[in-house]
Design brief:
mainly alpha
Length: 164
């Protein structure tokens, strides 16, 4: 049985978007609440270590692939029924803006502030101030990424269900 390239793009779109949504969901519902229970130094060191370790080839492939795949998916299904096409197009736009741009312009700058700080030499006051600057804004922007990645995933499934 020959694998249709459209179906391959769609399946990869769903897979990588689902993995991204799952990562965002888990981070929002387990990782950041757990870290939030730590003292300032523990929180900042743990977050700094995770930010450094997450930048690996597997994560980058899974996290970045949907940005391209979802637009390709919308393009290859442009001549299908309107619900499917609109679902795929909105999923692509939502993921690009709500995950991609939010990551680049909101979460990454916060990560960079944290990464540049030598935590071991900071005073307790400096640690408390850094955490105040970092934690709540980072979590708020990440919640947007979580909602947008999940919604994009749902839109892909809706498009699949209406695809004729």
């Amino acid at each position: 049985m020959e694998l249709n390239y459209k179906i391959a793009v769609l399946m990869l779109s769903i897979l990588f978007t689902g993995l991204t949504a799952g990562l965002c969901f888990t981070w929002s519902n387990a990782v950041t609440p757990g870290l939030g229970r730590l003292d300032d130094l523990g929180f900042l060191k743990a977050f700094q270590a995770m930010n450094r370790s997450i930048l690996n080839p597997t994560f980058i492939m899974v996290f970045m692939s949907p940005f391209l795949l979802l637009f390709i998916n919308a393009f290859v299904f442009k001549n299908t029924n309107q619900i499917t096409f609109i679902s795929y197009l909105v999923a692509a736009i939502l993921l690009f803006i709500g995950v991609g741009l939010v990551t680049i312009f909101k979460n990454v700058p916060l990560n960079e502030i944290l990464d540049k700080t030598v935590l071991e030499t900071a005073s307790n006051v400096e640690l408390a101030e850094l955490r105040k600057t970092f934690e709540q804004p980072w979590n708020r922007w990440h919640l947007i990424r979580s909602v947008c990645s999940f919604t994009s995933f749902v839109l892909l499934v809706i498009g699949l269900l209406f695809n004729k």
